[in-house]
Amino acid sequence: MGYNRRMGKRGDRESLLARIEELEEKVRSYEREFDIRETDMEASGDFTFPSLFDLEAIQLLQDQFARAVRVGSIITEPDGTPLTRPSNFCHLCRDIIRRNPKG
Predict the structure, then answer these.
(1) 68-71, Cβ contacts within 8 angstroms, sequence gap of 24 or more
(2) How far apart are CA 87 and CA 70, in angstroms?
């Protein structure tokens, strides 16, 4: 299998796009299952990201995205509490910024 400097091994991009499509369908399925509407969410006021999405599926998508585009990624609550594990963090992110209370 050949090597592409931007994408790594050939096929990685196609695999990533296929997986993204699968996860998007899963999200659509959740939306149908829970019949989520903006007005319902505003009325209840008690929805959270983890209650709406499968965090393991989101973690996989985040890991693949971070690797594909070569960025660090993490999803947090508005207060900074992590919801996902860090993906593709460099030394600066992992060992300096995220260990600082303000990071």
Answers:
(1) 68/7, 68/12, 68/13, 68/16
(2) 10
Asked if residues 70 and 89 have their Cβ atoms less than 8 Å apart, the reply is: no
Could you tell me which residues come within 8 angstroms of residue 11 by beta carbon, excluding any fewer than 6 positions away? 1
Tokens 């929805």 sit at which residue? 47
What is the distance between the alpha carbons of residues 84 and 10, in angstroms, rounded to a whole number? 28
**pLDDT tens, residue by residue, 36-83:** 555 555 566 667 888 888 999 999 999 999 999 999 999 999 888 999
- Give, for 4, the enclosing helix (H) or strand (E): strand 3-4
Calpha distance 6→13 (Å, rounded): 10
pLDDT digits (tens, 9 = 90+) for 13-44: 888 888 889 888 888 887 776 665 555 555 66
